[in-house]
Amino acid sequence: MQIEGEKITSYSDLAKLLRQYARGFYEHGVRAGDRIIIARSKDDAYVFASRRSVKGEMTYHIEDGQASFCLSDNDNLASVIDHQSRFKKIFVTTGESGGFVSVSSFKGLPERALEELGEADTKKTLGAIAYTSGTTGDPKGVMLSQYSFVAAVQAIKCAHHFSAPPTGMIRDRKIRE
Questions:
Q1: Cα–Cα distance list, 41 to 38, 73, 76, 79, 93 (Å)
Q2: Which UniProt key words apply to this protein (predicted)?
Q3: pLDDT tens series, the chain, 177 aa
Q4: Dihedral, CA atoms, 171, 93, 43, 80, nearest 10 degrees?
Q5: Rounded distance between C-alpha atoms, residue 136 and residue 95, angstroms
Q6: Residue 29 has what pLDDT?
Q7: Structural domain harbouring 94
Q8: 97 in Cβ contact with 77 (< 8 Å)
Q9: What is the spatial distance between Cα 109 and Cα 123, in angstroms, rounded to a whole number?
Q10: Which residues have C-beta within 8 Å of that of residue 138, sequence separation ≥ 6?
Q11: What is the per-residue DSSP string for 32-52?
């Protein structure tokens, strides 16, 4: 891998982008409370893993997660297509791919206001389910609360990956394989 440079995004640009993506997902039927499975390569080890084991794990996640929508990169799309009938819609992260909705088309859409969730107990309200690797059996779903997600963001912020607004920037390195 070779690092090709940095892309710097301000908080206001990131917030605008989030509102544009919110509009795109909303226009394609995603609503509050819908489950979305994210089938993306995590790291180099995942990319080079046996496609058979990746496909097996993906099948387990799809069946266990009971998601209505799927967001996939091109590397994992083949593993998801076999389960297409389980989803209302499949979104792809890059380019156009066989009639699936490309989220890159969401950039430039009119912004949609983000809604407050208004949950009473954020420490207990489910925000996401992350799956373990399953090295000692089937993968297991680990429930992440909204509170734990925000706490993780705050921990990263405290580690100086982000600086406080208004000068705050998020840095993203472009990596070429």
A1: 9, 7, 7, 12, 11
A2: Peroxisome
A3: 233 456 666 777 878 888 898 899 999 998 877 888 887 765 444 333 333 344 455 666 677 678 888 888 887 887 788 888 888 998 888 776 777 888 888 888 888 877 776 667 888 887 777 777 667 777 777 788 888 877 877 777 776 544 444 444 455 544 444
A4: 160
A5: 36
A6: 92
A7: 2-115+122-176
A8: yes
A9: 33
A10: 60
A11: TT--EEEE---SHHHHHS-HH
Mean pLDDT of the chain: 72
How many domains, in total, are found in the chain?
1
Count other C-beta atoms under 10 Å from residue 132's C-beta.
Answer: 12
Residue by residue, DSSP assigns 60-119 as: HHHHHHT-SEEEE-HHHHHHHHTTGGG-SEEEESSS-BTTBEEGGGGTTSPP-PPPP---
